[in-house]
Amino acid sequence: MTFTIIFSQDSMREFKKLDNLTAKRLLDKLESIKENPYHFFERLAGREEYKARVGDYRLLAKILPNEKSIFVLSLGHRKNIYKK
User: Fold this and answer.
1) In the structure, what pLDDT confidence band is assigned to residue 53 with cuts at 50, 70 and 90?
2) CB 37 within 8 A of CB 71
3) Cα angle value 47/38/5 (rounded, 5°)
4) Strand runs (DSSP E) across the chain, as ranges?
5) Distance (Å, rounded) from C-alpha 84 to C-alpha 6?
6) Contact status, residue 23 vs residue 83, Cβ threshold 8 Å
7) By the 8 A CB rule, do 56 and 66 touch?
8) What angle do CA 78, 50, 6 make, to 5 degrees?
């Protein structure tokens, strides 16, 4: 049951700003998340989005089970990500 990863335009812009090591860590985590997203993602309280931790960085995403896809809304450092 492999899910497809879809990036929003905002998340792609944020991803391109990251250093190579952090970007590689995020990509590696996304590869493992594709197999079972509910194991790695945690639902945000009072919202329909999910978060995944990758060191000091967070991925905010919507899981679309009918389409078998994970829509990455935003990513960034944990101190700034929830302010958007």
Assistant:
1) very high
2) no
3) 85
4) 4-7, 42-43, 50-54, 57-64, 69-77
5) 20
6) no
7) no
8) 95
Q: Cα 46 from chain centroid? A: 18
Strand partners, 74: 60
Q: What is the pTM of this model?
A: 0.87
Instruction: Convert the pLDDT of each residue in 1-41 to its tens digit.
Output: 789 999 999 999 999 999 999 999 999 999 999 999 999 99
Residue 52 sits at the vertex; the CA angle it makes with 46 and 55, to the nearest 5 degrees, is: 130
- In eight-state DSSP terms, residue 80 is T
